[in-house]
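User: Could you check the structure of this?
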Amino acid sequence: MAAGAGLGATAFAGGALARQAANPHAVEDFFARPLVRGAALSPSGDRIAIIRDIWEGGQRRAVLDTADAADPSKPPVRSPIGDVDCESMEWVSDSRLLVWVALKTRTDIDRRSARSLIGTGGDEIVSRRVLSIDPTTGGAVVLFSGDNRRMRAVRNLGVMVDPLHADPDHVLMAAPSSIGVLTLFRVNVLTGRAEEVEQGGNGTFMWQAQGGVPVLRYDVNVAGNAFSIHARAPGETRWTFVRRVRLHDAPDFEWVAETGTPGIVLVAAREEGEDVISIREMDLKALTFGPPIATREKADVIGGLTDDVGRYLGAAYIGDRLEYDFARPELAAHHRAMNRFFDNECNVALIDIDRSLNRFLAYVTGPREPGAWYLYDRGARSFVNLVTRTSLAADRLGTAEVLDVATRDGATIRAYLTAPAGRAPGPLVVMPHGGPEVRDSLGWDRQVQLLAAQGWWVLQPNFRGSGGYGLASAGEGWGRWGDRMQEDIEDAVAQVVRDKGLAADKVGIMGSSYGGYAALMGAVRRPDLYKAAVAICGVFDLPEMLAYELRDDNTPDNEVYQFWVKRIGDPRADRAALEAASPRRRAADIRCPVLLVHGVDDPIVPVFQSRRMKDALTAAGRVSVDYVEVRNAGHGDWEDEIEQELFGKYIVLFRQAFA
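Assistant: Sure, the predicted structure tokens are below.
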């Protein structure tokens, strides 16, 4: 197989390069503006669209380069886009490309409060629009153009429901009506003109369509923590309730693809009594689910794989890396070949597949690969590096390995350990993940690499209670937030310090959301072990968090609240245990310096959790505590400029603790 020049031909040529000591990247290198915004393969597989940022006359401009997929080395056709942030793109036909852009303006007033230590010089207002571009001529229209009232009043006009593969001149879009109800529109991609199809219900935020006809509708509740799924089979007029799904917490239903049979679609769902999420058929008329057609033991499916006209090709899973179970078995060998190209070190995500299944556009990431686009051509037997997202060099990044950790009670958990470039023994930073019913894997993680660039090792344990392994595995952490889940983290630390010869007196812990809880609960339990703790948007008082969930839950029978009671504990029957497992209630047991960070508008963990944790640590008077609130931000979703400033604080804290 012929290989194109690029990262794959250099950084992954062999293990010797990874073992070389190298000058690590500076912090600012990790926050440099991406060189490329994205790439997309046309449905026929003939053309590749690439969006780049270039500088002309001291001004940044986004441009669209359209390359010949048969010979990507030929000079592309370039079309200007303008001074906008391009967020994504999608071919809706072989002659039309949609580009999602963000238009950003900032007010002059900086409303920084006494607690909000991170200011941004005023409020940023973001409007999202979709450009429909003819890559041959560069001509473009804005979708919903001609509707001046909607263009002025609505910030987000970028919600596409269905690309309408059978109608190359139109797409289905969602936007608010004149009375504020989300409405479906059929939008002409040649003129930008929109015509109303139907209005949603109270709380509607999305639809799914089969053959261009809406068949599933999603309505969020008032609290914003759950949504109802309604179905309508082709030919029917009434929507029927199907099920309710948690919006943020371990959702167990997802649209996958249409099928060739009207009224039958593919979804990823876990049915009553099942351990894992599987792909299965859903009958929209009978409102029933078929048996799994793609399933794995102890592994939840994370989504489906389709070609560029929406046909189902397989199921996606996360093990240590991204894996597919192909419905077309002949594709498996090609994906294995792509993985071998990177010495099985990367995640090769197939983001576009042409309708003839000949050309594949892959987005490749990995512990030492922040992102690159490759074109795989079955007919030409080639795999070509098209563009890379950043200028970060693989040999200046930390290398990652998979660990099996033996726990104190005889179980085994998976963990991932990243060594700094050169692999010299030194301090260790533990990063328990959030969720907690999500999981870590081998992939690009900027925070991990930023810590490794300081010469520190980074450990990411999938403690019991993590997600992705099925419900039974997640259930091993239910009611064990303060003990078993923490013990697994501690056992992983002990094994790594012993086996790698790391500095046992230089261990820090850092996490977000549940990981923020684990960071401070670790400091409570093991004041002898952790020398500094960073907790971002964390939960610190379990009884108070449960009370908040109950107050905020308007689902029937308090379904969201009961979800958390099952996982954390009953605030009446387990009151003493919950208080003992709450870092705020045990602030006096913490002996290391603490840095707390929280977004003021966090919709998942309320900001009062960090405010009261800070007050408790201050009242205890035993350790130094720094607290940063980020205004106009939610659950860790702040901009890169703020993340860079925050990371400077994290590094200073750990560096002082490890001195």
